[in-house]
Automatic annotation (TrEMBL), chain A:
<feature type="binding site">
    <location>
        <begin position="160"/>
        <end position="162"/>
    </location>
    <ligand>
        <name>substrate</name>
    </ligand>
</feature>
<feature type="binding site">
    <location>
        <position position="402"/>
    </location>
    <ligand>
        <name>adenosylcob(III)alamin</name>
    </ligand>
</feature>
<keyword id="KW-0846">Cobalamin</keyword>
<comment type="pathway">
    <text>Amine and polyamine degradation; ethanolamine degradation.</text>
</comment>
<dbReference type="GO" id="GO:0008851">
    <property type="term" value="F:ethanolamine ammonia-lyase activity"/>
</dbReference>
<dbReference type="InterPro" id="IPR044939">
    <property type="entry name" value="EutB_dom_2_sf"/>
</dbReference>
<keyword id="KW-1283">Bacterial microcompartment</keyword>
<dbReference type="GO" id="GO:0009350">
    <property type="term" value="C:ethanolamine ammonia-lyase complex"/>
</dbReference>
<dbReference type="GO" id="GO:0031419">
    <property type="term" value="F:cobalamin binding"/>
</dbReference>
UniProtKB/TrEMBL annotation, chain B:
<comment type="subunit">
    <text>The basic unit is a heterodimer which dimerizes to form tetramers. The heterotetramers trimerize; 6 large subunits form a core ring with 6 small subunits projecting outwards.</text>
</comment>
<dbReference type="InterPro" id="IPR042251">
    <property type="entry name" value="EutC_C"/>
</dbReference>
<dbReference type="GO" id="GO:0008851">
    <property type="term" value="F:ethanolamine ammonia-lyase activity"/>
</dbReference>
<comment type="similarity">
    <text>Belongs to the EutC family.</text>
</comment>
<keyword id="KW-0846">Cobalamin</keyword>
<dbReference type="GO" id="GO:0046336">
    <property type="term" value="P:ethanolamine catabolic process"/>
</dbReference>
<keyword id="KW-0456">Lyase</keyword>
<dbReference type="GO" id="GO:0031471">
    <property type="term" value="C:ethanolamine degradation polyhedral organelle"/>
</dbReference>
<dbReference type="GO" id="GO:0031419">
    <property type="term" value="F:cobalamin binding"/>
</dbReference>
Amino acid sequence: MNYACTLGLRRYVFPDLKTVLAKASPARSGDMLAGVAAASEEERMAARCVLADIPLARFLQEAVVPYEHDEVTRLILDSHVPAAFAPVAGLSVGEFRDWLLSDLADGPTLSALAPGITPEMAAAVSKLMRNQDLILVAAKCSVITRFRNTLGLPGRLAVRLQPNHPTDDARGIAASMLDGLLYGAGDAVIGINPATDSLPAITTLLHLIDDFREQYEVPTQSCVLTHVTNTVRAIEKGAPVDLVFQSIGGTEAVNRSFGVSADLLDEANIAALELGRGTLGDNVMYFETGQGSALSANAHHGADQQTLEARAYGLARRYKPLLVNTVVGFIGPEYLYDGKQIIRAGLEDHFCGKLLGLPMGCDICYTNHAEADQDDMDTLLTLLGVAGINFIIGVPGADDIMLNYQSTSFHDALYLRRVLDRRRAPEFEDWLERMNIADFGGNLLPQSEAQPLLALAGSL
Amino acid sequence: MSKPAIVTADPWQRLQALTRARIALGRSGASLPTREVLRFGTAHAQARDAVHQALDVAALQADLENAGFASLAVHSQAADRSVYLRRPDWGRSLAPESTRLLREDAPTLWAPRPRLALVLADGLSSLATDSHGLHMLQALLPYFPDLRSQPVIVASQARVALGDEIGHLLGAEQVVMMIGERPGLSSPDSLGLYLTAGPRPGLTDAQRNCISNVRPEGLGYQDAARKLAFLIAGALKLGRTGVDLKDDSDTAAPLPAPSGLHSSLARL
């Protein structure tokens, strides 16, 4: 196919689909670092004009990363469902944008469409969309998942409680966990990033959360975010594993750098399903992703970072995960330079994930060497709230003292609930009310020493 | 007359003794109280300053000289901080004039093929280099009595791998890169120590050993020096650094080894 157009006095010719996608992408430092970004603003618009006219069906014929070299490509193309694709099979990328924004594309229609859309199609259309388009279409998508509670219902917002501690100190972790629960956070998952990969330490943490959850009958799930092979070993040792966590990326090579493959994930998924610990559903996987991971592993195949990020979702959806979290600002300014780039990337990731049928959350975050601050995070938080994000992260005071970056706080979630009237997962909401932590409307109640969780705090 | 309580306090403040995490902050309605907004803003300001303040190379070299260390100053190919942050690859290679300096001036200061090359680099926190660099050298002296005859290089706009090229040009057997780590909100001055045997361009992080979070509130100078001396001796015996060289200097407190996306992305 010929990828060319004339803008003004210049003729722009692009060698392949991968190049069109990369040059059409909104500016970001990671694509410049990779040498795949548009060289001028006009070239970026030329690429978008070309992209708008490319038939969606072309994406089934021309792979961004070669089929024979990459298992993620094979998985994407082999699992494509033509019947689901049928409603948009005759559209170009530009027409697809119009269709998504139109009243033809309501929630049920978009849910039915998901298996027919490839990650590259989602990435392509996102490059033609403004921020408000990404928000509007994502807000029409509904992705509901279940383990011990129900996540992703319309009008709901969940929080992953992230009580990390730099030395995995049990009492330090418990203190942050109680703080979060008393702030009404933790319905998505209580998830710890461990400081060490040692199996005994991980098992200790799993028991710490699980014993607590059982004692207080908290309708949520727990996770220790260690490598999938460690989690499988923990399962073999009989540890109380609810969810299997793994970081994944959009190419076979970046996943190799993470030490994973589809086979390994299949195996872990089956092991977790066999435990049967979910009471309401069997979504047992928790994935984290982030634009730029493939480039940082030198595994990007000359593709832009946003397209590769969408391909990671193509891998994720094979496993019907409970949670998919794009850790958007963690990677640093060489991939997403400033607040503007982080905000755009967060909206793109949420949109692409939702369009592909995934329960998207976002770690709305930044590091201290990025040109970003709390105001930028407030903006992205608000926008993703409007877009109907399934869950966000809750870290005490937004300061993760283990991973040394700033995420969102328990207070941030309360802000979003107030301004957008977003409620917690229904089962968790009922528990908070039973525990006198929140009232019927979901507002926090003043606490006293009579609070049962504080009795536990006294024993720490 | 006492004012009515505007801020809702959290009656679990005693838990603050168990963690440095920002817990029991209280709330104004559902939001962060003013006191905490200011405390957070101050910590962020300090971390930002640590990233953006240029290393005072002349002052550091003067301090080194007073302490009996001869030094040379080099610069990476990243001209300034803004370029440095966008182009980590440029922070990993020397500016041409610095290459020349190491080729021509180093032989007048130090013997050829030194045992150790020591690099004090700004990295992502010049505050860390400025505050702890010289203290670390002094803490190493008891382990290496001839430390003052080894080359000390002060490097600006540097990434960890810049040490490979420096060590290679000096013909050093091992290079120790002492570099400012990405500042955390409560730790703007963490120094990282990276040991690489047989330094030469093109090595990967899997071929080094790292000691992280060196600062008085984290890993103290004496403990860091003991660990580094242990690794240097171990690398000599093993013939290489990297994943095969284990830090067993303190089995009660092994170095943390986080996994997955976060650790892969947190590299300097």
